[in-house]
Amino acid sequence: MEVFGQLDIIVANAGTITYDTPPEDLRPEPFASQFALMVTGVGLLVGAAWPHLVRSGAGRIVLTSSAGATFGSHHNAYYTAAKTAVVGITRAFALDGEGLGIKTNAICPLGMSHLFEGFSTDEIFNRWFEDNARPEAVAPMVAYLAHADCAPSKRVFSTGLGHVSEIFTGLTKGWHQAGHTPEDIRDQFTLIEDRSGYTVPMSALESTGAMFRDAPLPTSR
Questions:
Q1: 83 an active-site residue?
Q2: Angle, helix 77-97 to helix 28-35, in steps of 10 degrees
Q3: pTM for this one?
Q4: How many other CB atoms sit within 10 Å of the CB of residue 208?
Q5: With contact defined as beta carbons under 8 Å apart, do 54 and 6 qualify?
Q6: Residues contacting residue 146 through CB under 8 Å, at least 6 positions apart
C-alpha cells in the first residue's frame, strides 16, 4: 500500500504435497501443517486484503486448488483435503464479494513445479512434462481472472498445456418421498443419480431450495 497506493488483485498459489500416504498411515500433524498453509494461510491473506479490495471496487481474487483435490488422488489425503477446502473458501469469498465488485475464482493448474518432484519415476515422462507443462501456459488464465473485465465469479477452472476447462458441481433433480426408508432409497437410486436436467446452484441456500419445494414450510397464521 505504501508503494502502490492501492490493492486490486490477490493471487494465492501456496502449496505443499506429501505423496504416497495410504489411509492407515495418516497422522494429525501433516493434516494440520498442510491446512495451515493452503487453507488457513490463504484465508487469512484474503481477509487482510479484503478492505483494500472493497475500496478498489473491482477486486479480483485467484486461488489455487487442484484436479487431484476435486477428482481425487491416490494415497494423497492431506493434499486433496486441503485443496478441496480451497474450492469451498473460493465460493464463500465469491458470495461475500457480491455487490462489492469483488470476483473470486480458483484454478486447478497443470504445470511443472517442485510439487511434481516424486510424482513419477518415469524419466521419459518427466522430461516431456518439464519441457511441455510450462507455468507460462497457466499464466493467461490467471491474468484473465485477475483482470477488471473478468465477469465470472465462484468458478473453478482447469488449465495447463494450452487447455482450459471449467470444473463445476451439479445437483440432480433427485427424488422425494416423505418418510422414506433405506430400502426406498435403494429402489429409487437410479432416479436419485439421474443427471439429466441437473442444475448448478449458486449458493448453499439455492441448493436446498428443491428440498423446501418438496416439503413446503407451513404458512404463517
A1: yes
A2: 30
A3: 0.89
A4: 12
A5: no
A6: 9, 11, 60, 62
Evaluate whether 168 touches 207 at the Cβ level (below 8 Å).
no
Buried b / exposed e over 36-50, threshold 16 CB at 10 Å, is eebbeebbeebeebb
Q: Give residue-wise pLDDT tens across range 183-196.
A: 999 999 999 999 99
Q: Work out the number of other CB atoms within 10 angstroms of the CB of residue 145.
A: 24
Q: How far apart are CA 103 and CA 83, in angstroms?
A: 19
The residue from 66, 78, 153, 158 that is catalytic is: 66
Catalytic residue check, 103? no
Distance, CA of 114 to CA of 16 (rounded, Å): 9
| Catalytic residue chosen out of the listed positions 56, 78, 79, 153 | 79
Distances (CA, A) of 20 to 26, 35, 59, 119, 159: 10, 18, 38, 9, 25
Among 83, 103, 153, 158, the one annotated catalytic:
83
